[in-house]
Queue: 3 jobs
Job 1
Amino acid sequence: MKELVRPSRLAPGARVAVVAPSGPVPEERLQAGLDVLRGWDLDPVVGPHLLDRHGELTYLAGTDADRAADLQNAWCDPSVDAVLCARGGFGGMRMVELLDWDALRAAGPKVLVGFSDVTTLHEAFAARLGLVTLYGPMAAGIDFIKNARAQEHLRSTLFAPETVRTITSGGTALVPGRARGVTLGGCLCLLSSELGSPHARAGARGGLLCLEDVGEETYRLDRYLTQLLRAGWLDGVRGVLLGSWERCDPYERVRALLLDRLGGLGVPVVEEFGFGHGEGALTIPFGVSAELDAEAGTLTLDEPALR
């Protein structure tokens, strides 16, 4: 697994586009998120279909074609320095093949921020564009709007990434040890669903794999992990970071499953690392070389996430 190209950091006055590649966006939360961005001295612009709702499939923010067009146009606009996703939900998998990847590549490296369903885009941007992306709070999310830790960690990553080269989570070792590798990952169910799709990553070999999920029963988490194991996708992984399991079964039950499925990999595993759907989520860059210290609960990047 190779380290990916790091986009440039943001500076005051930078223009950032907010798009909705997945689920519908509550307008009041969007406006609150835009106010946060303006408070950071950024110039936010929104996609024309950002507040759309699909006529029949109401869990989608408009049609697949319109969601893809908003993302495409934002990324290819030379005045835009970063693209922030408004929320997750579901829908990224439906529109990712509608993007013109040659045009996105020609537009050059930019910052992409999002988590949850945006896992599909993180994987695609890594595999097709070779770009570092940020797994972090989204512009219309409660964490982004109201949580100081989530806001500050994302803001520091965007503006002063050298100040957050060591990410300290307060997590503990499920399996102790240290490991080096390139960061990747996201929402477990999405990573499992990527298997067999066009341009999917071959596996996590050489990587520090970040996993989290939301609202899943333990047997479903078992299914996703077992599918990755059976497919050989976890062969050669160097270490595992576990984030939040919000609205899943009681953590004792989830923890037993994680140890059962991941403990036999023979690599360090750190739990409760503080990224994903939980309150005060940290921003984790994907595609950078780093060292995991499971017992200390730290991830130390070789270089800042952004140039």
Job 2
Amino acid sequence: MTRHLGMDVGGTKVALRVESGEGDAATPYETSFRWAVGADVREDMTALAACLDRVRQSSAAPITAAGIAMPATLDPSGTVLTWPNRPGWTGLDLRAELRRMLPGTVISCADDGDLAALAEARAIGCDDIVYLGVGTGIGGGVVLGGRLCPGPARGSCELGHLVVDRTGAVCDCGRRGCVQAAASGPAILRRAEGLRGSAVEFTELQEAWAAGIPWGVAAIDEGCAVLAAAVVGAGELFHQEVTVIGGGFAGGLPGFVDLVEQHARRLTRAGVPQPRIASARLGGLSSLDGAVLLARDASERAGRPTALQESKWL
């Protein structure tokens, strides 16, 4: 029996899933952990190694391949070029670290938004989608004709860094007015804090949203309006069949996607049909599912990185 590992690396949390080979009915092994607040990159690597050691020991079967969904920008060798959420990772040879932690395992890394888009396209059986994941940041991916656009060899489709307000808030990337600076989970929470006049936890925002409390509604409404602008702009370029909105933050707020659609409808240009907007079929697990798909694909293709570009839905 072979096993495939998917790992979704986030700014605050890492989720992992191990699935057995095709036709095996074994229950997937799942686990997760949170990065320690204020930890440096070596402490992060120690925590990751300890978790992967537990994963390896969960079964005697070897992990044949691992697919890693990453929000950071990596160079072709697997070295981190930039990751604003964890700046200490800059210069880290992530691929080498993972090979050390998972000896004998084929390691493949890809953008988390790209992998989420592929997983959602496969889940809904649609060849042309735009994906936006609302969480610690704004992940994005575009699938056209069943394949990633523009393709891994040319980089990922960073929809979260579309500039929608050149005088807006400063984004983690250093620019002003990115979608992420106004519509990510932390951005919406910051807006809620400003409107309320005190700190706001996500659970408090959920309660305010459900109860219709003005500061909560206004904070979320503005975030949805910004996302709608990004969705409509993407539609002018890609003419996608459906826009999928996922991520843990959006998934935790019932009606969030409906509100994005309402704002998008107001921006529709005469004579141009508005692509359907839908909630992620896989919820907050889109990137993790995509990471498992990447691992399976790497195993089947002996780890060739071009598989992402060549394959329909991997």
Job 3
Amino acid sequence: MEIDNYYDIVVEKLIGWSELLVKMLPNLVLAIVVLIAFVFAGKLIRNLSEKLLNRAINNQSLTSIISKVIYVMVVTIGAFAALTLLDLDKTVSSLLAGAGIIGLALGFAFQDIATNFIAGFFMAIKRPFKIGQVIHCEGHSGIIKHIGIRTTEITSFQGQEVIIPNKMLFQNPLVNDSENTYKRIDLNVGVSYGEDLERVRDIAIESVRNTPNINKNKDIDLVYLAFGSSSIDFRIMIWVEFKSQLEFLKSQSEAIIAIKKAFDKEDIMIPFPIRTLDFGIKGGEKLNEVFPQETMQVNSGKEANQ
């Protein structure tokens, strides 16, 4: 008897579901059509957004991610619309609430990753640098090899591959050497207190006029900085064309060589550190040239007698 009752209940349920299915069949068909339409619309919008973003951003990885996000959003809207047509409003509300909670949890769990993605997005729009340019940021320097949505890869001047999170490049001061055609060489030099400073200035400026890659349209500036412990310090500033980091360093090296040669030729003293004993105003004098010969002989005699 109990088995018959269970059988009747099951049959009743199946009949009720069958009637409900027949009743909802038009809405079910319409929901499927709506979902398929949104899928095709999502693909169309994705392809269109890729073309537009490639023109605006010119970053393939970022363009791909944004277009895929747009596609998923369109399909998701279509799925919710299809569920609404099936009178599953409570299910839609539950899904939205669940998605909100999951999104919040993922946001906290992957905060750094999300920050890097957002930084990569804004950098792709602003374009502070390009592949092949030389940048310096937070102690890292090199040539940009790849710009990703989450990280940027550079090749250091020593040949090392360095992967930098986009958050670091976005939030910290960034120097882009390749944005400007010319870069200034600053050389700090010291000369003896006994030198004629005006003469030193003229000789130093003249010595670097043929520095490789020099910009002849800009003046060579020299300013005296301070009275140092063993020298009078000055800075000479030369503008050169920035072709690469190596070429810049070569120009700087040639300027140093030129100044040293000119000072040697003109007998201009670049003093040693204060630990060096200097006998004479210009430094490097011999004792027998500073003191009279008789004084040296008297002192030597006294030492011999002792």
